[in-house]
Amino acid sequence: MGKSFLKCSEKTYIYFPKHEAMNPNFGAFKRIITTPVLFKFFIFKNLSAAFWSGLNIHHFDEESCVVRVKLSWFNQNPFRSMYFAVEAMAAEMSSGMLAYAQVHNRKPAVSMLVEKVEATFVKKATGTIFFTCADGKAMEAAVDETVKTGEGIKLTSKAIGKNLEGVIVAEFTFTWSFKAKTI
Asked: How far is CA 124 from CA 82, 133, 168, in A?
């Protein structure tokens, strides 16, 4: 477990992080994702549909990711609720950011791919919806396994969308495939 030193006016504190992310580049990726300007640039460049649909990171750490999307004229359907594809984007982003954080600038490089998506739409999505995925540790373990063995690894991840009242509006299950690239 690594340590770092924090200086505060007169005292120096030793900080022991709860857990070191397996990917040494996790911290750099987290900085991009949690800095609003950098995040907007990142999704505009890499995920432009998510940018135009208004997806934002509400929370991000090694264990979970919460993506927020608010109903707007741009992402609504003719029935004045959120278009299902926008919900799918937000759900996939909540799961995918955890996966991407483990493969970001990785040596050896690891490819990631969504192989299967299942969705259940429980309630009409209006207002602000929060999609939560808490499979960060599983993503880390899957990427660690493919790096160690060189074999492809499949992982099933769940993202749940809730409105401001905490009512579930949609549930998504993603099957991810990870494979370490050989040189």
From this structure: 8, 20, 10
